[in-house]
Design a protein that fits this description.
109 residues, 2 domains
Length: 109
């Protein structure tokens, strides 16, 4: 029988842990080697700007994100891209349309 090893990092407060993770992530740097061509350097620099955010999803929504992400057959998308696509879709709607969509969501819960 293999006993699962618990990781202890000396932090008991979840907010303190989140703060430490954010501080660690903000110090991350990518060393761009001179051998990389300019277009790739620009693309890598653009991709460096991210923020780690955490939010809760129930299992149904989690599965729906996975299901939507598996629909394309000629390319792959990440879970993050699925969520970003949904945000982009909502952003294209009028305020009234967004409110109506959010009302429908609230009534399903």
């Amino acid at each position: 029988m293999i006993k699962k090893r618990e990781r202890t990092i000396g932090v008991t407060d979840e907010k303190e842990l989140d703060a430490q993770i954010e501080q660690f992530a903000s110090k991350a740097e990518l060393s761009l080697e001179e051998s990389i061509d300019e277009p790739k350097k620009r693309r890598l620099k653009r991709e460096l700007f991210f923020r780690r955010l955490t939010f809760s999803l129930n299992d149904t929504v989690n599965d729906q994100i996975d299901d939507i992400g598996s629909k394309p057959t000629i390319f792959t998308v990440s879970r993050s891209e699925v969520v970003k696509s949904a945000i982009m879709y909502l952003h294209e709607k009028t305020d009234d349309q967004i409110i109506e969509i959010l009302k429908r969501f609230r009534h399903k819960r």
